[in-house]
Amino acid sequence: MSIGFGIFLVVVGAILVYAVNVDVSGLDLNMIGYILMGAGVIVVLIGIALLLRRRSVSTTQRSAVDPATGDRITRTDHSDDVI
Asked: Which residues pair with 58 in a beta bridge?
């Protein structure tokens, strides 16, 4: 969700900078557009960092002895904890 919001901010900022040619007294729409684009890039980078941080792999290894044959059995389970 944060990646999409960051892209939205970049698009709105680019529209303000490159497509809107309106003079508003007291507001610099170009500067607001650049600020929105910068904030959008930061939000996208934070979203990607959080997405990569959530991915983790857990490994569980269990050993037991088979009562019928007396052989040692080792079982390894891998799971990706992706939210």
From this structure: 79
Could you report the per-residue pLDDT of 30-46, keeping only the tens digit for each?
999 999 999 999 999 99
Buried/exposed 45-60: b ≥16 CB within 10 Å, e otherwise: eebeeeeeeeeeeeee
> Contact at 8 Å (CB) between 16 and 29?
yes
Distance CA 39, CA 69 (A): 64
Which token pair is 68? 């019928």
Residue 68 CA neighbour count, 13 Å, CB half:
0
Contact 71, 48 (CB under 8 A): no
The model scores a pTM over 0.85:
no
Query: In 19-82, which ranges are continuous DSSP H helix?
Result: 29-54
d(CA 35, CA 14): 10
